[in-house]
Amino acid sequence: MDLKLLLISTLLGVICYSSAQQEGNECIKANAKSCGECIQVGAKCGWCMDPGFLKQGEATSTRCDELESLRKRGCSSTKVENPRGSQRALKNKAVTNRNKGEGKLRPEDITQVQPQKLTLSLRSGEPQSFNLKFKRAEDYPIDLYYLMDLSYSMKDDLENVKNLGTHLMLEMSKITTDFKIGFGSFVEKTVMPYISTTPAKLLNPCTGDQNCTSPFSYKNVLKLTSNGQEFNTLVGQQHISGNLDSPEGGFDAIMQVAVCGEHIGWRNVTRLLVFSTDAGFHFAGDGKLGGIVLPNDGKCHLENNMYTMSHYYDYPSIAHLVQKLSDNNIQTIFAITEEFQPVYKELKNLIPKSAVGILSANSSNVINLIIDAYNSLSSEVILENSKLPEGVTIMYQSRCKNGVTGEGEMGRKCSNISIGDEVSFTIRITAKQCPKMGKPETIKIKPLGFNEEVEITLNFICECDCHKDGIENSDICHNGNGTYECGACRCNEGRIGRQCECSTNEVTSEDLDKSCRKDNGTDICSNNGDCVCGTCECKKRENPEERYSGMFCECDNFNCDRSNNKLCGGHGHCECRVCICDANWTGSACDCSLDTTTCLASNKQICNGRGTCECGTCKCTDPKFQGPSCEICPTCPGVCTEHKECVQCRAFGTGEKKDTCERDCSYFNLIKVKDRDKLPQPGQAFPLMHCKERDANDCWFYYTYAVNKTEKEVHVVETLDCPAGPDIIPIVAGVVAGIVLIGLALLLIWKLLMIIHDRREFAKFEKEKMNAKWDTQENHIYKSPIKKFQNPNYGHKAVDL
């Protein structure tokens, strides 16, 4: 398993190294034929203009390389073409610092975005960065257009909106002193499927005795005005209308409000559109129900303040609306009933700088809804840019309030911005390539919902400065078959070669190929190049440091011997697969030093007279001696005494050298062990000497001395072995003798007491024995074991047995 992991890690390392090499050598891989092509490859690439820069076998494209590589190859920095990008601010008016009470300014005199106009010169692969400031101005003018659904279900809402003008003017005066309000209404397209099943319903689409106006698509009732009473009067004259299906034609109305700026009266200030409805919406494609198939053209079609092309153009798509609202800096507030909140919240997610508010049943809360939505929209700034030219990228980084930063898509915006707050953005623009025509391009960056913007002119660096001095049809380029520029020939069409000496029709000629072979038995250009016009142009390696060269590309500078994983040991350079060593170095890999100073011993003899100096290293001929200069003899007598004082001061802080220990005794590595068993033993390490030395206090310390290659090592037992002191021996002996005497006395006393005790016990026993009185009466229970029998046959006399 360990072997597998090792192989995998090695393979990954090789892959990573190869990837790094490829990424880092884009200049070589580009095969650029001119300086202009070279500088478009990347910001790291430069072009050597020195006419004598190329070696035999090197193609013109090898003039294009990384800057450091060109320097190493001998190209002077004054001969390297390496144009850099730049930037210049053409209009950089500071953001306005203004308070509400300082007097009224015209909208065009207020600046919220800085800078306003820039020009950037872009070199391929080299980003240009600049900072954009945004400051939300105090007392900034506001235009608000109220667009209302006048279908029958909004009857109660219309009554409350009739007094909206003066009330909203009063509330908005707390935010700005320059406020205008307008009003428009919509119902539905005036085609039969959307209105009713009979034409009679067109005059009065409402049922019963309800008096309703004829249906219409969109009507601009009141142009933006600062007269709130005029708003109330005109809205009070409006009547409810009706239609057949539930979704309304509001998208037609929004489109006209967005693009008919002169009719609406939009100024270059904050533009708010309040869209009020209690129903859903039709969008692109729904017009087919009425036979309308032409897509919405996104243009203004108002005549006498009425949208006249609703029967001709389909509803706009959501994307189309988003574009037009953004182009005209309009922020949308959807004031809708709770029933349709989910639908319009989804729509809000598709329309930047929009908000959704919930209307009460009769729109009585519309003023609070507008104020809340405005505060929400104005507290967030989101940057957007116009369409970028091909090959150009842009990145944003935001620095918002309270140190909050963002990158990527979050770098485009800042939230929770109050009036007077200033935020900034770092914008980085990079060109990956030159446009096809190479002409300047203009892009714009602006905060959504605001009329201010930054205009940026992009100039592309597609040619080198030396290109201007080029000589067309130069004699240098083989009888005028090319333009001599930047130290090389740029061949005319149909011509190739370093001096444009060949026609493309001659490239495959057998005679030309023969001149690219070293002999008949070798490959063309040694299989390391291409035969171009009878001359070998050597292949380029991914590593810019590695090159083929020679008349037949038979040489290279990377296949020489190595030492310590370094080409030519790091002490020479490789030419045609042979190491050319630096001074004082020799060997096939330049790894053998001719300097003998490293072999000098302290007695100024080479290798102490006990060896030879080979490649800067002593080879000791006396096996007892070791070390870089053959001066160390671990097993020679006197080694222990020689190092005693240094071991003593470093291990125990005592001895004659304790005050100069750091200066005099740092020549070996000290390793402490717990006891003598832990000391290195012969055969376990390099040749070593076991030492036992005594200090001034008659304490012994034990250590070993060895030389591990060039490192001197001392292992020492960390505790001293000290004998008992002379003045304590009599005390100890006296104590021991006293203890022995006391022990003997106690033993005698115990023995005496035991004898006395035993004698007393024996006398007591004898006395009790003599005083004992035995009972002589017959025991009635006792039976004699003797029986008497009488033999009747013998004398009739019993015989005792």
TrEMBL record:
Q: Which residues form the Integrin beta subunit tail domain?
A: 640-727
Domain named Integrin beta subunit cytoplasmic is located at 751-797
What GO MF terms are annotated? C-X3-C chemokine binding; collagen binding involved in cell-matrix adhesion; fibronectin binding; integrin binding; laminin binding; metal ion binding; protein kinase binding
One Pfam family cited in the UniProt record for this chain: EGF_integrin
Q: Which family does it belong to?
A: Belongs to the integrin beta chain family.
What is the primary gene name for this protein? LOC112215590
The alphabetized list of GO BP terms reads:
cell adhesion mediated by integrin; cell migration; cell-cell adhesion; integrin-mediated signaling pathway; muscle organ development
Q: Which SUPFAM superfamilies does the record match to this protein?
A: EGF/Laminin (SSF57196), Integrin beta tail domain (SSF69687), Integrin domains (SSF69179), Plexin repeat (SSF103575), vWA-like (SSF53300)
Q: Which residues form the signal peptide?
A: 1-20
> Transmembrane ranges?
728-750
The source's superkingdom equals: Eukaryota
Which keywords, in A-to-Z order, does the entry hold? Calcium, Cell adhesion, Cell junction, Cell membrane, Cell projection, Disulfide bond, EGF-like domain, Glycoprotein, Integrin, Magnesium, Membrane, Metal-binding, Myogenesis, Phosphoprotein, Receptor, Repeat, Signal, Transmembrane, Transmembrane helix
InterPro entries assigned: EGF_extracell, EGF_integrin_1, EGF_integrin_2, Integrin_beta_N, Integrin_bsu, Integrin_bsu_cyt_dom, Integrin_bsu_tail, Integrin_bsu_tail_dom_sf
Which SMART domains does its entry note?
INB, Integrin_b_cyt, Integrin_B_tail
Disulfide bond residue pairs: C27-C464, C35-C45, C38-C75, C48-C64, C206-C212, C260-C300, C434-C691, C462-C466, C477-C489, C486-C525, C491-C500, C502-C516, C531-C536, C533-C568, C538-C553, C555-C560, C574-C579, C576-C607, C581-C590, C592-C599, C613-C618, C615-C661, C620-C630, C633-C636, C640-C649, C646-C722, C665-C699
What's the protein here called? Integrin beta
Report domain Integrin beta subunit VWA positions. 34-464
Q: Does the keyword Ligase apply?
A: no
Q: Enumerate the PANTHER family for this protein.
A: INTEGRIN BETA SUBUNIT (PTHR10082), INTEGRIN BETA-1 (PTHR10082:SF28)
Q: Which GO terms describe its cellular component?
A: cell surface; focal adhesion; integrin complex; lamellipodium; melanosome; ruffle membrane; synapse
Give the membrane topology. Answer: Single-pass type I membrane protein
| Subcellular compartments | Cell membrane; Cell projection, Invadopodium membrane; Cell projection, Lamellipodium; Cell projection, Ruffle membrane
Gene3D superfamilies in alphabetical order: 4.10.1240.30, Cytochrome c1, transmembrane anchor, C-terminal, Laminin, ligand-binding face of the semaphorins, domain 2, ntegrin, alpha v. Chain A, domain 3, von Willebrand factor, type A domain
